[in-house]
Amino acid sequence: MTGAKIPKGANCVIRQEKTNYGEDEVEIYDELNKYDNYCFTGEDIKKGDLLVRKGEVITYIHQGVLASMGVSKVKVKIKPRIALIVTGDEVRTPGQTLKEGKIYDSNLHLIYSRLNEFGLQPIISEIIEDNGEKVGEKIREIVDDVDLIITTGGVSVGQKDILHDTIKLIGAERIFWKVNLKPGTPVMYSLYKNKPIISLSGNPFAALTNFELLVRPVLSKISGNKNLQYKRVSAIMEDEFNKPSMMRRFIRAHFNNGKVSFIENKHSSGMLASMLGCNCLIDVKKGTGKLKKGEEVEVVLL
Hints:
This protein is 20% helix and 23% strand. By secondary structure, the chain is α/β, with parallel strands linked by helices. The protein has 4 domains: 1-39, no CATH class; 45-76, no CATH class; 82-228, Molybdenum Cofactor Biosythetic Enzyme, Chain A (3-Layer(aba) Sandwich); 231-301, Beta-clip, CATH 2.40.340. The chain has a 6-stranded mixed sheet, with helices on both faces. A 5-stranded mixed beta barrel has the order 10-12-11-13-14. Helix 3 packs across helix 4 (163-170). The longest helix is centred in the C-terminal third of the chain and has 20 residues, at 204-223. The radius of gyration is 28 Å and the shape is elongated.
């Protein structure tokens, strides 16, 4: 039968349906060459072959291959334990009644869902009011149970930008505040008990840009998953962008077959719906003038 060991002295196999199914004597209705329908030892995997590389995500194929070799256990990295905290007095959870001056949260759902797409999931996700002490209490409470804390909002220069006070209150070390890019300039990176705290802008598109450019490399590092690193490619502009860039800027766009175009001509960092259909960010260097149709640009694939 299929899969059986070849008897000693045999060098080919006849398909059963090409015979009269005889047992003591059999009629064969096909010609065979040496080693027809024959599987050699080691033809799939040879001694010394590498089956899984360090840093690869174990897929169903890996599991099948490992099982075929009798491997029942492999050492793996534990998934990063992530906390996601959204700050803001004005933020309400979808489904709640929206009063005057309040807005529905999008950042928690945006980043939570993006992490899910990466095969990760926050073990803690909360919305906390603009209160530096309350945010600090939460960080103290969870820091020993997580590998990374992501916050959104509260990192600019307004009276409600409370993350600066929070970092001081808990005795964390602020590594940097503000980066020279648009959107998402006021992003902050801190360390508390040797755990990274990445505080993103509160504007939805700015938070998303910060996440893709700054958080993804951290996730790749702490998870050991190189696939989480973003990729860069060159593309040809199919549209024009008529604003000069006084600082490094990232513009939402759609990449297809070596070309890049805009879905909508809406680029405010507070706008999120214009990201629908976008799959890349155009990386525009500081001091660049208007982008012209046919110009080559560099894009970050999402």
